[in-house]
């Protein structure tokens, strides 16, 4: 018989190849394929085996194991869908220094005080460094245990000794499994460590929070399969020059996947901001040109946001277009519609557009506010006080309806705004607010200016 050919496997991503090649065709790493022996033949038949539990009617399935336990941090519970679910595995990713470790240390402290032992394993800092941070934010508790390990077997031993209700691993890229080959933090190691911890969490009913690194593009480092393995994926982001931090859920098996939690970071740690609308709107005694307020929807939460624009004569050459906190492609489109459909001359002017407070606005509902801000800056005339604008701007200049209009208007009325420019057929507004329905951008700008 012909002998089986040896197989080659990539130490970075685990890709198998029947022959050696210099560059892995999967992860594009050079010199990472090593010989691992003959490939095993696939099974020709699969026989029945034991089951973990017999199948039961759906009405008889217990719900106690899927009920969320609040952590006591309202904004964090809001993003999770009510709290921590026993046995759930949560991946929290964010840029270095944004405050992930501080927030999760506060979460561990709250859980330790309310539900029992909690274990924080740090692969990046010593236990003394974590203790200093805990003292600074007031997160010391007898049921909060600390360990500094980078070996997976040692982490499992700590879990067996402490028997925690919550495990926080900071971070999953720093832990290595001795049973798997590959570089530290590589795709093979990250997948093996995450799989072992997920199996441990499910078998013990232990909530597990994994801290993940991000790449320079903002994506979670490691294999894409990591996001499929975990139950919840949270993104923790914020500008370094701002104290505002946001936690967004991009995947959640236990709640909505589009919620957002707002926090403010300071000397005492990360503090939740239950009413963040005031952070994204400037407080002035009188209106100024180039500013318009809109209401964005982050999950089920309406947030007031201010859009600012500046139109200045160009110094020669190609006019500049600078954007901060907004989608550049969306701003370019609205800028072209304002010039073509509303008759505002912008071809020889520099246009700058930005959001207030570091919030990122990407939804089309802010198109009308952006268009009015640009027109206001070009005419050097402010919009009326107490006015908000809601609507999507089409290429032909029409104003389209947006979702959640009722909740947006109610939030604006709660903040003291008395008038709203809205698309036609937007219904009735809350008490004390006057709605001005418009169908065309050009007519709206002519009416205001």
Automatic annotation (TrEMBL):
ATP binds at residues 94-101. Residues 65-214 form the RecA family profile domain. A motif (RadA KNRFG motif) lies at residues 251-255. Transmembrane segments: none annotated. Residues 350-449 are annotated as: Lon-protease-like. Keywords: ATP-binding, DNA damage, DNA repair, DNA-binding, Hydrolase, Metal-binding, Nucleotide-binding, Stress response, Zinc, Zinc-finger. One of its GO terms (molecular function) is damaged DNA binding. CDD domains: RadA_SMS_N (cd01121). It holds the Pfam family ChlI. GO terms for cellular component: cytosol. InterPro entries: AAA+_ATPase (IPR003593), DNA_repair_RadA (IPR004504), P-loop_NTPase (IPR027417), RecA_ATP-bd (IPR020588), Ribosomal_Su5_D2-typ_SF (IPR020568), Ribsml_uS5_D2-typ_fold_subgr (IPR014721), Rubredoxin_2 (IPR041166). One of its GO terms (biological process) is recombinational repair. It comes from the Bacteria. Belongs to the RecA family. RadA subfamily. The middle region has homology to RecA with ATPase motifs including the RadA KNRFG motif, while the C-terminus is homologous to Lon protease. DNA-dependent ATPase involved in processing of recombination intermediates, plays a role in repairing DNA breaks. Stimulates the branch migration of RecA-mediated strand transfer reactions, allowing the 3' invading strand to extend heteroduplex DNA faster. Binds ssDNA in the presence of ADP but not other nucleotides, has ATPase activity that is stimulated by ssDNA and various branched DNA structures, but inhibited by SSB. Does not have RecA's homology-searching function. This is DNA repair protein RadA. The lineage of its organism: Bacteria, Bacillati, Actinomycetota, Actinomycetes, Geodermatophilales. The gene is radA.
């Amino acid at each position: 018989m012909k002998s089986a050919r040896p197989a080659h496997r990539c130490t970075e991503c685990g890709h198998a190849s029947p022959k050696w090649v210099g560059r892995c065709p999967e992860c594009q790493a050079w010199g990472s394929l090593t010989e691992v022996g003959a490939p095993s033949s696939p099974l020709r038949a699969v026989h029945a085996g034991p089951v973990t539990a017999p199948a039961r009617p759906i009405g008889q399935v217990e719900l106690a194991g899927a009920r969320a336990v609040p952590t006591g941090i309202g904004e964090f519970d809001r993003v999770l869908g009510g709290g921590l679910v026993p046995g759930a595995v949560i991946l929290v990713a964010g840029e270095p220094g944004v405050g992930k470790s501080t927030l999760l240390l506060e979460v561990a402290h709250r859980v330790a005080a309310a539900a029992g032992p909690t274990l924080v394993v740090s692969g990046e800092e010593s236990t003394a460094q974590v203790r200093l941070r805990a003292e600074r934010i007031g997160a010391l508790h007898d049921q909060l245990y600390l360990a500094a390990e980078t070996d997976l077997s040692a982490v499992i031993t700590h879990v067996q000794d402490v028997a925690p209700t919550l495990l926080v691993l900071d971070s999953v890229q720093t832990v290595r499994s001795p049973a798997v080959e590959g570089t530290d933090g590589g795709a093979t190691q990250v997948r093996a460590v995450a799989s072992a911890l997920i199996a441990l969490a499910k078998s013990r009913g232990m909530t597990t929070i994994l801290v993940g690194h991000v790449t320079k593009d903002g994506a979670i480092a490691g294999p894409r399969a990591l996001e499929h393995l975990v139950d919840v994926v949270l993104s923790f982001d914020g500008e370094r020059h701002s104290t505002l931090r946001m936690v967004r859920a991009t995947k959640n098996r236990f709640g909505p996947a589009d919620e957002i939690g707002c926090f403010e970071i300071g000397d005492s740690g990360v503090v939740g901001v239950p009413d963040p609308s005031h952070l994204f709107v400037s407080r002035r005694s009188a209106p100024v040109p180039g500013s318009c307020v809109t209401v964005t929807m982050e999950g089920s939460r309406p947030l007031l946001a201010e859009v600012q624009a500046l139109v200045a004569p160009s110094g020669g050459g190609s006019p500049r277009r600078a954007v901060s906190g907004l989608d550049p492609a969306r701003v370019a489109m609205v800028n072209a519609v304002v010039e073509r459909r509303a008759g505002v001359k912008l071809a020889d002017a520099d246009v700058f557009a930005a959001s207030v407070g570091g919030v990122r606005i990407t939804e089309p509902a802010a198109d009308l506010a952006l268009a009015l801000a640009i027109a206001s800056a070009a005419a050097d005339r402010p919009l009326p006080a107490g006015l908000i604008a809601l609507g999507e701007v089409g290429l032909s200049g029409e104003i389209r309806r947006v979702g959640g209009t009722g909740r947006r208007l109610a939030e604006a009325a709660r903040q003291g705004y008395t008038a709203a420019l809205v698309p036609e057929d937007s219904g009735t507004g809350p008490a004390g607010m006057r709605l001005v329905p418009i169908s065309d951008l050009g007519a709206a700008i002519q009416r205001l200016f």
